[in-house]
Amino acid sequence: MNDISCKQEIKQITIPTPFAVGDVHTYIIITDKVTLVDAGVKTMEAWEVFQRELSSHGLKVLDIDQVVVTHHHPDHVGLLDYFPANIPVYGHKRAHPWMTQDQRYFSTHEAYYKELFERMGVEERFYPVLDAIDKPLRFACQRGLTSFVGEGDRLDGLANWRIMETPGHASSHLVLFDETSGTLIGGDLILADISPNPLVEPPYVDEAERKKAMLEYIHSIEKMKRLPIKRVLPGHGDIVKNVPVLLETRLKQQDKRANKVLNYLKNQPATAYEICQFLFKSVYEKQLLLTLSETIGQIDYLLDKGLIVEDATSKPYTYTAGGK
Ligand SMILES: [Zn+2]
Questions:
Q1: How far is the CA of 269 from the centre of ligand 1 (A)?
Q2: How far is 92 from 69, CA to CA, in rounded Å?
Q3: Which residues contact 256 (CB under 8 A, 6 or more apart)?
Q4: Which residues are within 5 Å of ligand 1 (an ion), measured at CB?
């Protein structure tokens, strides 16, 4: 432990979002440098609240030396557009094409999701949903990362903070762990009241296959279990204190959800869309992309455990309970 880490202060700044998740938290770590972790959604209201909260801590935007983003979702990066252009912004390289709104990357998305819908057996009446798929990006930033960071990296002024890769909720997801105090700035990985949705992302620019978000999420939670975390400062909701218990609860909940799907498939084979309808009877129509992501997560989980079999000979694919 060095002097600087002893003098460290952390401030939570809470910013409204137009999304169902509600407010988002950002964090200021004050050492010999001022570091902002995450930068809320791009609305005038969020910008005003952010500046007001910042000044209540005796700071202004120009005092911020550097920004780290935990992942690329709009509610964590949007305000960067209002920051001076010379502030360094760090994050995982996979966040970059989302943050710059790289049209070359986005141009592949519609075809990707359409093929995914066909594979899953989604009714054609829902295909227009794909036209609006990039809509939340108007709340995101349009500036990229200055430098990429990843597993084990440390930044100036944050010598006791270890950056760790924790994909799952987003493939770009990072957390920051303060080894001296046991504080984890957890983005959306560990939330007190909800388990984060393992969102399906089209394959990254140089990859052929999508990442299996649910499996990555489980892996990230297992990784967090091995850390002496005392508290989590999350992206949304209350600060998490009893971390080992919550991590265990999340893993058990996931297994329970997967079992529900397994039991359903014991009665009949089904497409992913049918599983989605079964799991989310009342909400799947309104929240199609979120509920499909969750369903894909359960299928990936059960396939990985060898508990179900996929028939991919024709679209839509079907799933049957039972090992290979
Ligand atoms: Zn998120």
A1: 33
A2: 8
A3: none
A4: 73, 188
